[in-house]
Amino acid sequence: MTETEFLLWVRGPAFQGATVIFVLGVAFRLLEILLLGRKPNLAEARGSAMLGGLRTIATRSFPDAGTHKRSAFTHYVGYIFHIGFFVTLLLFAPHILVIEKAFGVGWPALPTPVVDATAVITMIALIAVLLHRLKDPVLRFLSNFQDYFAWFLTILPVFTGYIAFHRVGAPPPTLIAIHILSIELLMVVFPFTKLMHAFTLFMARWYNGAIAGYRGVSS
Amino acid sequence: MSGASLERGIHAMKEQIDAPTAMFFSACVHCGMCAEACLFFTETRDPKYTPIHKLEPLRKVWQQEYTFWGKLARTLGLSKPVTDAELTEWETLVYDSCTLCGRCSMVCPVGNDIAYMIRKLREGMAASGHAPPGLIGATGRAVTIGSPMGVKLPALEAQIRHTEEEIGFTIPLDVEGAEYLCTLSSMEIMNFPEYIAAIARIFHEADVSWTLSSEAFEATNSGIQIGVSDIAAVLVERIVKAAEKLKVKAVISPECGHAYMAIRWEGPNLIGRPYPFKVFHILEVLDELRKAGKLRTTGKESRRLTYHDPCQISRRGGVFEQPRNLLKMVAENFVEMPETGVMNWCCGAGGGVSANERANEIKMTAFKRKKAQLDAVAPDALVSACANCRIQLEEGLEENNMDIPVISLTETIAEHLAGKPPTEARQS
Amino acid sequence: MTEISNDTEFRDRLESLDPAYQRILAARFVEKVLSLCDDERVCRVVKVAANPDASADELRTALHSARVAIIDSHARCGADSSWKDQAGYFVARAAAAAVSPPGQLAGGAAWHAAMSSRMAETCRSIDTAEDNTGQVRQQQHLILSEFLTSIESAPHE
């Protein structure tokens, strides 16, 4: 297989396959969860579960002052790599073109040097997060293979994208193919790991806020 | 424990797992922030006290029973089912170092309600024979005697008589058609019976129609603490039956955290039907009286006072404004703790921990979190509204050589009632 | 002799007394129920309370001792209750009240000591089904009456 054939395969059938697995996988996982259902609450409500749920989806992104202080590293560096990841994914011109081709909708891109710098910051943040996970007693205690694998799956696209953009180490078509492959790997494994939090966190926050809101507490 | 018990335990856990539980487990990213929200971790720095870690047996059951890959892995022998030894190991994590305070649930960035899940895990722990002996004993007494501490009606009647002599008027018992049925906790009846005098005086002053019930005076619910919903339901049903028999409009829960959670929030779900009456915490009732202008007080405490929010009343119960409204009536120098209201820290002894002798040491260690708050505020006295918190606070303060009296909010209000004390004490 | 015949008068008179007098009276109330408590520490606290010349340090130490006795004797949450032990708990509370600093207890030290002493007797009555609570109350009224008479008739310097 030539470089070009490889790239075409990666951009074509492999990407389609990965997308199908991703979409079906996420849907399946969510259904698996939601179908468990929950019992109705027969106690007299004090507040609104719905509003409580919606409120917590938003407010849980901003911890209270005490928590903020105690978990400053996790909070700030966590945000840095998440925001960085999504900036490189969604505000990079070539990525927006791909999305536009697929869904017919596009938006303005950030200047490429800005995205480039963001990618670097994101990778530094991810490395910091890894070191923290390895060093911090609680994180070291909690972490398992999945945590480290998910980390790897997250940094790989950023890294491969960066070297593809800077044309380092291999011919451009190969580099781009590897980059897209890394995304496909992420997509395929995503539904079966904690990366599902990208979807489940909204509903988890909603449940939390709903349970508390029912009792008149803003959680 | 026999295999049959482990089976019952796993079965109980399976029944408990619902969509929120599955969603929470799916959302957890092992960020560790819950650890810094838990006083058992903050005061020991031992990672095993990380709240989400305390749930590991439940998480395993969820994964192996309710996820495709989890079920496949178990079938292929790639994952091991939960063992009895594991549940033994987790017993101290689930019962000794968790008070169901719910602070972790407020902090988790993905929104996990960890305390909600610990409550569910306890159902499995109890069904598999892994609950602390102290709690098992208390629960047994609650079912057979009517009180986890073995308090029987004659004892309550003696306390009532003593109180009637002190306050100079009768305390209503089994009065049909009264507006409120008051319940009490055994801890109050035994250790702080002055609470009975306090509510009697307040209701007398505010002209509130109320009654105790000889058939259902116990508010505490060991079934909730141990995690046996069937027993918890039996205990709630007693109160419900008495309330229906006496045709009251509302039931009042006393100064006890878990009693409120049991009767107000869990109760209808335990017995499978809504109540035909309302349920209030005593502080809610007092605050309504305040708003209606029926609670007239005189004089103010000049001491520097601060308030400890009982977790089940404040954070998990929703009653956090009322105590502050009431305190402002009688305190001219009230200061909040740093991190207060729904983010206040647990005393360290709720959720069955104080009934568990094995947890004596860890709960005193956990108290250091409260100590740190008190060191920052330096109050002259500490006000709270839970008899269990009160004992733990007193013990902790004594252990740490801190001279801060702990006072009940209801009793403090009663001490400041504007009405004159009764003119004639009853002679026997 | 000043006759105290009801609890309203009892409380009012107690509250109006000097803290030093309240302490002495409180000690006398607790002495009457001391047999219900087998904690030596409580006995020593009552001795300190009864001593009109007790120093501030002695009182502080006694209070600490009484508080430890209270904590050691309270009914444990969820434990099988013993009303006999609870009597001891209330005697300890009465003793603590007796040596509490002035102004800390609403109603005053003597009133608190009196009520806790009565409660100790109530606990005993639950345990033994023998109710002497009325007698304890009358005894307390008498103690106060006699005390008031003695200070009223004491020579003024």
**Overall pLDDT confidence of chain B:** 94
CATH architecture of chain A: Up-down Bundle
By CATH reckoning, the class of chain A would read: Mainly Alpha
Strand content of chain A: under 5%
* Proportion of helical residues of chain A: over 70%
The chain-level structural class of chain A is: mainly alpha
What does this 3D model show about the protein?
The complex is a heterotrimer of chains A (219), B (428) and C (157). Chain A is mainly alpha-helical and 219 residues long. Chain A has helices at 3-34, 49-59, 65-70, 72-90, 93-103, 112-135, 137-142, 145-165, 172-189, 197-214. Chain A contains 10 helices and no strands. The longest helix of chain A has 32 residues, at 3-34. The mean pLDDT of chain A is 96. Chain B folds into 3 domains: 3-130, Fumarate Reductase Iron-sulfur Protein, Chain B, domain 2; 136-291, Up-down Bundle (Glutathione S-transferase Yfyf (Class Pi), Chain A, domain 2); 305-415, Rossmann fold (3-Layer(aba) Sandwich), CATH 3.40.50. Helices cover 52% and strands 5% of the residues of chain B. In chain B, strands 2-1-3-4 form a 4-stranded parallel beta sheet. Chain B has a 3-stranded parallel beta sheet with strand order 5-6-7. In chain B, helix 21 links the parallel strand 6 (381-384) and strand 7 (406-408). In chain B, helix 1 packs antiparallel against helix 9. The radius of gyration of chain B is 22 Å and the shape is globular. The termini of chain B are far apart. Residues 422-428 of chain B have low confidence and may be disordered. Chain C is mainly alpha-helical. Chain C is built from 7 helices and no strands. The chains are: A mainly alpha (219), B mainly alpha (428), C mainly alpha (157). Chains in contact: A-B, B-C. The interface between A and B is large, with 59 and 61 residues.
